[in-house]
């Protein structure tokens, strides 16, 4: 359960800070359904850019933002449908677009889900604490951004080998940026730095996305509902919500699958990871280049018992498809040779590296289950190609200038040639095996209780169901907080 114990003394200082900085905190219900947002908030958003450091942009933490960088309000869920001519499968694949969140990534939602409950209970005191955001990339960007909007100090931690664009942007937002050794696979190094801060500094509060249930709750409440509503919009008569597939990362997005499986019991939920570091598939290890997903452990917030399949994606596939989708020669190939519409090809830039891996996971899932035209699969584009220009430059340096023949080879090898190897449909025993891996990271290294680990498995409904019910409790605390600041009333 998320600790919602109130510290009245600290809360009073937090309320005063919010008054001084004119901060209104949105509810999860408003992120889930922006029609609940007050008109005076919407009026203020009309003059604000999507990435502006303005507290009103907290109300843009939603899948339903109008897709424009300046002054947008709300509409339907932003998505991209992958046509069969590109995917090579009959099933319809829908990718919800993270680009249209502030910071260009949906991780801003997960980090809000972790920070907001601590603020409105007074557990986090912005006049004293610094928020520490350990991450393999986008989560610490979202955490630092939310901290800035909520007038909190922040420390961002991420691997040194992440893209240059991430570090450049973070240097303008976070109070401090710490680069840990290695690449996105080096999660333990991030944990080690986090543990060092936890044990040597009293003024820090750790928001570890891999164990913070606010991450799980945000995706269950907000992302799950967005998938449901998108399916009802695009599915059509006779369609079936066949399933979802997400690269693991912190496994927060997997919580949306918990919500969907409650609404559509026949849906399947797949978790994906890099073939170069197949921890869930076969207890493997290694380094890889699918930026933004963590490895060599199973996140505490992952409800493994509700996961039907594990899929490994070769990072060569996602890297080379990133260039195919964004290089002018590659886009010309997709239009002229595959017959894809030019407008659609331009929108493929909505997919970052992990988003491409998510699409490939859906393709493998569709092939494995022999899905038809009536079957719909859902995933997310966590961020967009905007974050990976330097990676495309690196490929050009390594492989030479892009040419039509190389574009054709990339399509046929890295997308059309995707097979159902390196994946496993999880049995009961298979899920238990994956769940048990949590022990070594979380109980032995991070000090979690083995009783809670067992409760996640054996007391399934009370444990996970209890967390899901806390959305209403969090929103009630946010309402009370906003009432006491008086900011909303005086806007």
Written account of the structure:
By secondary structure, the chain is α/β, with parallel strands linked by helices. The chain is 48% helix and 12% strand. It is built from 23 helices and 11 strands. Helix 12 (315-326) crosses helix 13 (328-336). The chain is globular and about 65 Å long. The model has no long low-confidence stretch (mean pLDDT 93).
Quick summary:
With 491 residues, the chain is an alpha/beta fold. The protein has 23 helices and eleven strands.
The description of the largest β-sheet is:
7 strands, mixed
Specify the overall morphology: globular
Give the C-alpha Rg. 21 Å
**Low-confidence runs:** none
SSE order and pairing:
Elements: H1 8-20, H2 28-32, H3 39-45, E1 79-82, H4 84-87, E2 92-97, H5 107-120, E3 130-134, H6 138-149, E4 153-159, H7 164-173, E5 176-180, H8 187-200, E6 204-206, H9 213-234, E7 240-247, H10 254-263, E8 268-274, H11 279-282, E9 309-313, H12 315-326, H13 328-336, H14 342-347, H15 353-368, E10 375-381, H16 389-399, H17 404-414, E11 423-425, H18 428-436, H19 438-445, H20 450-458, H21 460-468, H22 470-485, H23 487-490
Parallel strand pairs: 2-10, 3-4, 3-6, 4-5, 7-8, 7-10, 8-9
Antiparallel strand pairs: 1-2, 9-11
Helix pairs in contact: 1-22, 5-6, 5-9, 6-7, 9-10, 12-13, 12-15, 12-17, 20-21
